[in-house]
Specification:
Blueprint lengths: L1 H11 L9 H13 L9 E8 L14 H12 L3 H9 L2 E8 L9 E2 L17 H21 L2 E7 L3 H13 L3 H4 L8 H17 L5 H8 L2 H16 L3 E3 L2 H13 L7 E3 L8 H8 L15 H19 L3 H4 L7
Parallel strand pairs: 1-2, 1-4, 2-3, 4-5, 5-6
Helix pairs in contact: 1-2, 2-13, 4-13, 5-9, 5-10, 6-8, 6-9, 6-11, 10-11, 11-12
């Protein structure tokens, strides 16, 4: 009933029906997920899940693992791109440690499952228990967020996580590593070739295609935590806005485990990362934006929340035909 109410309101506004396109669709989808009309001033937050990856030891990243910790500190200090965007849009930013290697980072929420993952070129990245705990950590965050916010964005930070995301794409969707592996955070052609070779070895080492076996074999802790947010979001009626290649890898995990949970997801943008187009096709997803972005952190998702905020303002502030005194037979 709420969706019909929102649609009637949209059709009554002083514009041709459907002329605001995807913005109108977002408002109706929000009503379906949340069971309520879109708010005039949406309460929104981005959760940036951080974790390290043992596969970095294979030389798949242009950056050392220590950058994960340094960027987590940068998020806390407010110096990253996502921080500037959160300030602009009036969003809260929460940094969550689900697997940063080393000591805890001051100012970062600790939901650590492991001290980073293991090198999946040699052994499974996680045990099944660790994989489930990472899902549970994300679901816990979603339950809390559903009481505080109208919708949330998921971002991530983890050196090596484009390799993990590419491995999940290959394993769940049968994509060849050469089509899944991209430049990530700045790898050159030789680096991408190395990544493809590592992916081929890892996929051969971990042949099981059972949903949780794949998640444990390749999944980054931050990726599985985002998958947990989606699962929790579906249970609590919380819209979850996904970012790019990494966070959509979490949606692949959910598609394999509990596909109906994807009903709570908004896909923000198509990343410039090579495998993202194929990933979105596997998910049957239609992202709203295509800006050649590949930063991560939740930046694309924050942009979509900004558009949603605009749509909400239009929904509440635009005059109806009745209020404006406009009729089709007006002369």
């Amino acid at each position: 009933m709420t969706c019909e109410l929102v649609q009637r309101r949209l059709d009554s506004l002083t514009k041709p029906p459907g002329s605001l396109g995807r913005m109108e669709e977002m408002l109706v989808e929000y009503a379906r997920i949340r069971g309520a009309e879109p708010p005039a001033r949406p309460r929104a937050a981005v959760y940036i899940f951080c974790g390290d990856h043992g596969v970095v030891a294979e030389g798949v990243s242009a950056w050392p693992s220590e950058v994960t910790r340094l960027m987590a500190m940068n998020f806390v200090a407010g110096g990253a791109a996502i921080n500037a965007m959160c300030r602009h849009y009036g969003m809260d930013a929460h940094v969550v440690d689900v697997g940063i290697a080393g000591e805890a980072v001051d100012g970062v929420r600790g939901l650590r499952v492991a001290n980073g993952t293991r090198n999946f070129a040699l052994e499974p990245a996680l045990t099944l228990e660790q994989a489930r705990r990472a899902l549970d950590a994300g679901a816990e965050v979603a339950g809390e967020a559903a009481r505080a916010y109208d919708l949330v964005a998921c971002g991530e930070m983890g050196i090596g996580n484009t390799t993990a995301a590419a491995a999940l794409l290959c394993a769940y969707a049968g994509v060849d590593p050469a089509e899944a592996a991209g430049a990530g955070a700045g790898s050159d052609a030789a680096g991408v070739t190395k990544k493809v070779e590592v992916l081929r070895r890892a996929l051969a080492r971990h042949p099981s295609r059972e949903a949780m076996d794949v998640a444990a074999a390749f999944g980054g802790l931050e990726i599985l935590a985002i998958a947990g947010v989606i699962l929790g979001g579906a249970r609590h009626g919380l819209p979850v806005v996904l970012d790019g290649f990494i966070s959509c890898a979490a949606a692949l995990v959910v598609q394999a485990l509990e596909p109906d949970a994807l009903r709570c997801v908004f896909y923000s943008h198509r990343s410039a990362e090579k495998g993202h187009r194929l990933m979105l096709e596997k998910l049957g997803a239609r992202p709203c934006l295509d800006l050649d972005m590949r930063l991560g952190e939740g930046t694309g998702a924050a942009l979509l929340i900004g558009i949603f905020q605009t749509a909400c303002r239009i929904y509440h502030e635009m005059a109806t035909f009745e209020r404006a005194g406009i009729t089709k037979d007006a002369s």
